[in-house]
Amino acid sequence: MRATRSIVSCVLSFVAPVLLPACGEQGLTYAEAQVAFDEAGLSSEASALTSSTVEISTNFTIGEAVQNAASELRTFIQSQLPCAEITLVDATLTIEYGVNGGDCTYRGQTYSGSHSITVTANDATNVVVEHVWDQMQNQTVEVSGTATVTWSFDDLTRHVVHEAEWTRLADDFSCQGSGDRTQQPLTGGLIEGFSVAGNNAWTSENGAWDLDINDVEMRWIDPVPQAGSYVLDTPYGAQLTMTFARVSDTKIEVTVDTGRRTWTFEVTTLPDV
Fold this sequence. Notes:
The chain is of the alpha+beta class. The chain is built from three helices and 15 strands.
């Protein structure tokens, strides 16, 4: 399976060359749109990192004791990430990525840093997993923060509430924010991908940002979502909107609206394998 890129970063690579200044129109200016893409891209990178660690920590049997669930998780994570050194105390796993030899990549993310997972409830009606990231890194971003993930046996939709700080490694640009999202597997199952709806909000030296995530569907093998939209409220009193629609097995249409200009283009994807 091909490793996916950050959703917004991929869109940015298509749109940035065609963003042109415009005068006398409402909406984002050229310079504001560039900052908005940059902020959204970094938020997307951080979300991709934390989402993959949340996904890997759902692989245990619902209804068993929390200690048993944590033990199952240790076995599964070790099988997927032999690079990790994992310590299990009661129902808490502490994971140090990159300590051992072997592959440290999962769902397109290459890990380093520390991550702890605590199973606090595990019965048919209520599953709760707490996450703590301490300087968790992939190839481009570092995240420190916490998240609470809840779901149940009958409702496999996961509710994720997080608070975190993320930093771009290339220039130490940092943001602090929080989010409240609902995730669920696509019709083909989690092995195919997931859909997400909710909100992310953050602040940086550029101001306050608020991202609405509207039923976005993401397959692991695609570089951009195949459905749904993002609406970013910016500190400039205007919005940036990205809408996604699959038009064929190998093409996704992306529409970007800055309030001054709208672009529609197609992204080529890989066929199912």
